[in-house]
Protein: Putative pterin-4-alpha-carbinolamine dehydratase
Amino acid sequence: MAGHKLSEAELQEALSSLPGWQIKEGKLYKEYKFNSFPTALGWMVTVGVHAETMGHHPEWLNVYNTVRVNLVTHDIDNAISNLDVELAKKMEELAAQNWK
Ligand SMILES: C[C@H](O)[C@H](O)[C@H]1CNC2=NC(N)=NC(=O)C2=N1
Structure:
């Protein structure tokens, strides 16, 4: 499922409900800081299981307790899609639940 490219208005609306997220180099970006490496890794595993069920996967970099996330949709020419927003919302929900 490719999702659809968001209009500028849709993107701004999505950003208003995603605290700490921004557009950086054309990607939906956030830096998460967790309490510890195991906490960061646990969140990544849970997010990863969800990403796999969505068929939509993050670009991310983990260094100790920091995870930098970049979301973009490769299937539609690296545009930001509704699927990137859906995944970002899931990341927020999971970070708020257990690991902050
Ligand atoms: C066939 C498979 O579902 C696609 O290649 C999916 C996999 N995961 C993906 N993840 C992301 N971020 N963008 C995609 O376009 C994408 N495509």
In short: Helices lie at 8-16, 37-54, 82-98. The chain has a mean pLDDT of 96. Residues 54 and 86 are 9 Å apart (CA to CA).
